[in-house]
Amino acid sequence: MTESVFSTIxxxxxxxxxxxxxxxxxxxxxxxxxxxxxxxGKRTLALAWIQSLFCxxxxxxxxxxxxxxxxxxxxxxxxxxxxDLRILxxxxxxxxxxxxxxxxxxxxxxxxxxxxxxxxxxxxxxAWMNEAAANALLKTLEEPPSxxxxxxxxxxxxxxxxxxxxxxxxxxxAFLDDASLTRLLERLAPESDPGARQAAIGxxxxxxxxxxxxxxxxxxxxxQRLFCDLDALGGRSLxxxxxxxxxWSESERFALVxxxxxxxxxxxxxxxxxxxxxxxxxxxxxxVSAVTSLLRDCRTINLNPRLTLESIFxxxxxxxxxxx
Length: 324
Description:
This is DNA polymerase III subunit delta. The protein is of the alpha/beta class and about 325 residues long.
């Protein structure tokens, strides 16, 4: 079978078939909502679909049309340089997608295409639009320009305005199975150690994005070290806790902390659920929310990493019964 952009998509066969059918019928629609867990390929498939829509030399396979993946148009799309494609996301050091970003996008969508027959945009992650941005987008969804395609990508469709959701065709993505993850890691991380890949699959929870991060040997080593430190919080002095915060606030280590902390807290919550301790589950969920907020603020408003981790470690130690 001839290689195509859709042939690189693993694990979402039913969704791919429906999208290819829409292309084959010449009815791609004007607005879609791709929702589901993080790191399973929502944005990747959105981009592959746009490549297929734009490709001037599509190839026909047994189940529909697809972009060739090799022509200049496909390469421009893949690299994010095509003049008729826009990818919108939260800007660096910002916490939300702003109304100015969305207004700029709606102007872009309204212009006549320069090279392709369509104008297309991906909003990733659409749930991070502020209220004004969401309302600005709604106007475009209500009266979409002819020949335009807008794909909203999110893990949290419930955070979007109901009026936005109702104006989109929807595809729900699921977690990937181990066989799909194995195929993807062999292709995307061929240099990684096979043992690390296998460990990554076990830790990924069905997300290839998470699995790719776990393939890094430093991530696995960091997991073991940080988990040991966190497991010991209940029996450590305040001075020891502050020293751990200093060590983990160093830039190279701190880059690992958000995901490792999330994983560790999730394991604690799963254990409390298994033990039937509903009260403790509620306390842990409140703590995880506070920890996530602190880490996000550290990234977006430049809080001091060491002080941030001190606050987090103290909070987690108190969850383990320490009184300080």
